[in-house]
Amino acid sequence: MTAVGIILSIIWMAVLPFFGGCILLPFFRKQEEKASVAFLLGCGIALHYAAYEFLTLAGKPLHLGMRKVSLIFAAGAVLLAGCGLRMLIKNRSSVRNWEWKKLLKDPCFYPAAGLVIWHVLAILIFAVPDPDDAFYSSLSSMSYAYDLLLEKDAYIGLMNQAIQKRYAFSALPIYQAGLSWLSGGLHHLVITHNLFPLVYIPLGYGLYTDIVRIWIRQREDRLLSRDEKDDSKDFASSIDETTLCVRVLLTLAVLHTVGDYFIFSQEAYLMTRMWQGKGLFAAIGIPLLFLAVHYAKRRGIIGYAMVLVTMIAIVFMGGTGLFLAPVELMLLQTAMWLMSKEKKKDIKYILLAIVCCLPELVLAVWMMR
Amino acid sequence: MEFAKAIYGLKLDDQYWGLYLVSILILFYCAFRWKSVGGDGQTARMMNEKNVGVTDDRKVSSRLLFITATYCILSFFPFFLGKLYDLTAGIFPESYRYEELSHIWLYPLILPLALGIAVSFASKVEDVQLSVKPDGKTDGKEKSLYDRLLPAFLIGILILVFCWAGNPLTIFRDAKETVKENGYGAFFTKEESGAFDLILSDADVIGAGDITIWGSREMMAKSRTYDARLMPVYGKDIVIHPEKYSQEIETFAANYDLYEAKADHVGSKADAIGVIANTPNLYEGVACDYVVIYDPASQGADVDADGIFSETGYRKVGQSGRYLIYSRIL
Fold it and tell me: What pTM, to 2 d.p., does this model score?
């Protein structure tokens, strides 16, 4: 029964989001850059999170319980995955292939992959509840048992106080309870402490690799543009990005292996605290936001719709992202604008970024009133 | 398994932060010693043909890895603020600067700063390297900034590692202890789950629905996670911010601390157990159905806990390992 629960949970957490993310593939059709599996999975997860967040916030005044919200969410997720699968069949060439031959020839690939696998195994084997479970997982078990949506405070134990405002907008614990319910009652501690790292640690590394790839391309493009702009495309396609990415991946994996020097370190967020909102935001939310903004520029309003979805997904992750994400987005967008050669034309992207911050702004005002 | 746990244990204690520096060392070794990036020199040839001034792939990879390394070092900065706090804690004991300075809110400031400095460093290094001509000849500046910095950097890192991280044997021995103390290996210990099962089965027998329990912090923190029917009388927050809650709840927390000797206590263990047994009777406003205490023998005291609780109107439910369980529902 547990094995069935784990398989079901993985389907809800990874398989359906990946196919859901594939609805973005048509926007990569005519582009030089192809979409990576990690980016598609990240976008699918962001779509799921945003949908669950919306359903939870809308469900509270409508007195929908966790189960009804999860049921509506499940129906939407299956529908989205169906659409995504159709897009994937039509636009298969828009997905970046893994260059296995190059990877297997690279001596750095083996230690890098070994370390990533070790990280996942370490978290799986040595997982244990910590004091933060008194809030997150307790909220999940309350939600599961009493069909509640962010109503009672789990932090103080008794169910006689309303949840604090700063927790009232983050649907992550309810989503974890929903996953538990949709997976036939698999204990939410297994989902949070075992399955979350199993899916999100590789996803995190995938997103970081995507960022490195973008970085490499931009650096080389700039280098070449000094002399021959016209041939830059040919040159960019000839650079062995995969090998470079593997080396940076190895570097990151080494750093993470000994990176638990501090509870706010990158390693702590990616591995030890991955099941918490802060961890998800720092390890997945920030790189995903970066990638969404990068890809958005060439796709205009549709591209920024994905940024908006990511921003709502970040609210889902917790109060930290609610305040930090707008700062990150505006810093990033302003930096891109300052580096742009067409400043007048590109000012519209700053305006679009401000629009993307609106969900955070509205909820922050609501929280502080 | 012990070895595996020891390896994982390296991640558990911040005294091993010196290993972070080891990883930086490995990183720099990779950055400086790996000669080819493309594997076939294709990038170098392409760049030479286009006369952009970079002579081989190594420089491309070095630059990128240099950026990554500098970024990583600077992202380490918040931790140093924590160390700064440790050093000055004796001078300013009431200070909360550690929390203020090291908090996640600093990241939007730290990360762009780190990236900016890293990129500016990399640009400078690139300028020096471009003095090497495309045909491989140099203009007399063969020693790049990399070459000048590398020996000093490596020696510095090694000194820091041995000063702060200790020798490898100490690290592994301590890590094993850390793993042991933290009890890694299972979600709930046998005695915890045994205690929860006893309470739940007792509640089923007497037909109680939701039940409130009072016990050690660790146990209450895990109770709700074990089963939603188990409601701890106070949770994690009360320990951190007792002023936000009622006087009654605060008293519950303080009285349990007396027994576990986490607070200043002049009386005996027997007195402390008496206080615990009487607290729910004095504060009826805080519903408390079950009380769980550590067996006094495990606390190093020879006290008849059963006698004290039965005199105060409790029924003994059972014992699971170190946990003694009493009920107020008769």
Answer: 0.75
